[in-house]
Amino acid sequence: METIGQWLVMVREFLEIPLVKLKETEITLWTLLYLFILVFLLFYLTGKLKNWVIDRLLARFNIGIGIRVATGTIARYFVIIIGFVIILQTAGIDLTALNVLAGAVGLGLGFGLQNIVGNFFSGIIILFERPIKVGDRLEVGGVEGAVQSINARSTTVLTNDNISIIVPNSKFVTENIVNWLHDDWKVRFRIPVIVANGSDVHLVEKLLLEAAKENRDVLDQPAPGVRFLLFGDTGLHFELRLWSTSLVHRKGMLFSAINFAIYDKFKKNGIELNTTALDLHVSGGSLEVKIRRSDRNSVSEERQRPLPPAGGE
Q1: 187-269: CATH class
Q2: Longest C-alpha distance within the chain, in Å?
Q3: Alpha helices (runs of H) in the chain, residue ranges in sequence order
Q4: What are the boundaries of each domain within the chain?
Q5: Hey, CA dihedral for 85, 89, 93, 96, is it positive or negative?
Q6: What is the pLDDT of residues 260-297, one digit of tens each?
Q7: Residues 6+ apart with CB under 8 A from 194
Q8: 100 and 23 in contact (C-beta within 8 Å)?
Q9: In angstroms, what CA-CA distances link 100 with 73, 77, 186?
């Protein structure tokens, strides 16, 4: 027993060795251990508090997930700040003594930590202004996906390939953002269609509308529409415009289903989709350009022109 008691006394004396002295406050190993344990518990418990506010407290009032996450995150930040001040005081650290470190910390923030601090305050702006929220479908910096979580430094975006991409919060403040679901889940999609010259344009319109209306993911209101855009060298250009709420996160699936339906209906009714192939043949001193078109009125067109001299543009 005496050996254990002596060992405990030695450990206590070791932990109470002063490391740093700030005015009248001495920082010991025991102080650092005490701070580490309590700060760890503070972050752990505030994380539990945030989840409780989001999943239990606010969920009872039928509040949207975006508002719940923002409220829970802000509440966690508030408790962390208050808790950290209390922990420092209970550890015997005089807060006025920390003024000695203010200059060094400010210098560090000005150089090495400026991006982290910028992202942190950008996260605060996002939570208050709410340009994005959890569940939104967005495009930013070449990344497209659904917002999974908004944290202090970064936001997690999940792509359709089930890949999580961590985006710094500053990008959502300084760059243009395409938010597909900012205020409304209704999104209009535009599907271009080019048919061969000489096609029955009224039949094309009828078939495009049928393809849209027969798809269960296309809304009846607003109703689908067809626009005859232009007479082009490559054929007649149409655009099918339709609205959907169910496949905003899977627009490729919607486009594929509509294109399959359009192809089947055009084939059944004798409407030819325009495909243009370009053949280049170099023979002798001339360049032969041959364009093959699938429209009914023009089978092929050939043009010849001399090749430029060697070294020319």
Answers
A1: alpha beta
A2: 108
A3: 2-15, 29-52, 65-90, 99-111, 114-129, 171-174, 201-213, 251-269
A4: 2-112, 132-179, 187-269, 276-306
A5: positive
A6: 999 999 999 999 887 654 444 444 555 454 555 444 44
A7: 232, 234, 235, 236, 237, 238, 273, 274
A8: yes
A9: 31, 25, 56
Query: What are the tens digits of pLDDT across the range 53-98?
Result: 888 888 887 776 667 777 888 888 889 989 988 888 887 776 665 5
Which tokens sit at 201?
Answer: 């344009």
For 40, list phi and psi in degrees, rounded to 5: -60, -45
Backbone angles phi, psi at 186, to 5 degrees: -75, 130
Q: What is the pLDDT of residues 164-180, one digit of tens each?
A: 998 888 888 888 888 88
Q: Specify the CATH number of the domain 132-179.
A: 2.30.30.60
* Cα 27 to Cα 40: distance, rounded to the nearest angstrom: 19
Cα 28 to Cα 19: distance, rounded to the nearest angstrom: 5
Could you give the CA distance from residue 24 to residue 3 in angstroms, rounded to a whole number? 35
Whether 278 and 291 have beta carbons less than 8 Å apart is answered as yes
CB 192 within 8 A of CB 259: no
Q: Is 38 left (phi over 0), alpha (psi -120 to 50) or beta?
A: alpha
